[in-house]
Amino acid sequence: MAEAQQDDQEKTKSKMPLKAVIVVAAILMIEGLGISAAFMFAGKPSPVQADAAAVDAEALGNQLVEEMVVSEKFPNSKMGRTYLYDTEVYILIRRKHRDQVMQRMENMSVRVSSEIGIIFRSIDPLMLEEPTLATLRRQIKAKMDAMFGKDAQSGKPLVEEVLIRKCTRFRADY
């Protein structure tokens, strides 16, 4: 008798309620049909068109431009002999900051040239022999950042990078 009750309990436990499964399946079908019908009647979305002028103006403003800072001969006598370094220094700035930087450059052109001259006179000559002139570029960039400041919106320096196009050494004591 106990075995018969266990068999009945196992049969009732293992069977899933058929009505509940049918109701859930029907609800899912109705939802699927409703969503499909809503998308069919809504139609296609309208085509999106970007404003080319706005995109181009922003891209143009963030474009990098090169501006010459100084083209002079700077002395260095740290090795016991005086050498002149014929140098051209450029800076990379964003086009949107160009007017601001160039106006400051005009107002401080002598100061900029003087600061770069001080760097050349005080730098170790071995640093001027580096293939990439990384130390010299880094020191000039630090001076440019101090002189020209930072962007008010982003907080980044106005001068993106310093480029040295020419740095040719000549002996000056012939």
Word description of this protein:
The chain is of the alpha+beta class and 174 residues long. It has two domains: 41 residues; 111 residues, 2-Layer Sandwich (Tetrahydropterin Synthase, Chain A), CATH 3.30.479. It is 50% helix and 22% strand. It contains six helices and three strands. A three-stranded antiparallel β-sheet has the order 1-2-3, with helices on one face. A hairpin with a 6-residue loop joins strand 1 and strand 2. Helix 5 runs antiparallel to helix 6. The N and C termini lie far apart (124 Å). The model has no long low-confidence stretch (mean pLDDT 87).
What is the subunit organization of this protein? single chain
Structural class: alpha+beta
- Remind me, CATH topology of the largest domain? Tetrahydropterin Synthase, Chain A
CATH class of the largest domain: Alpha Beta
Task: Please work out how many helical segments DSSP would assign.
Answer: 6
Number of domains: 2
Annotation keywords:
alpha+beta; Tetrahydropterin Synthase, Chain A; 3-stranded antiparallel beta sheet; 50% helix
A few lines on this structure:
The protein is an alpha+beta fold. It has helices at residues 2-14, 18-42, 52-61, 98-107, 109-122, 134-148; strands at 64-76, 83-94, 159-171.
List the SSEs and their pairings.
Blueprint: H1 2-14, H2 18-42, H3 52-61, E1 64-76, E2 83-94, H4 98-107, H5 109-122, H6 134-148, E3 159-171
Antiparallel strand pairs: 1-2, 2-3
Helix pairs in contact: 5-6
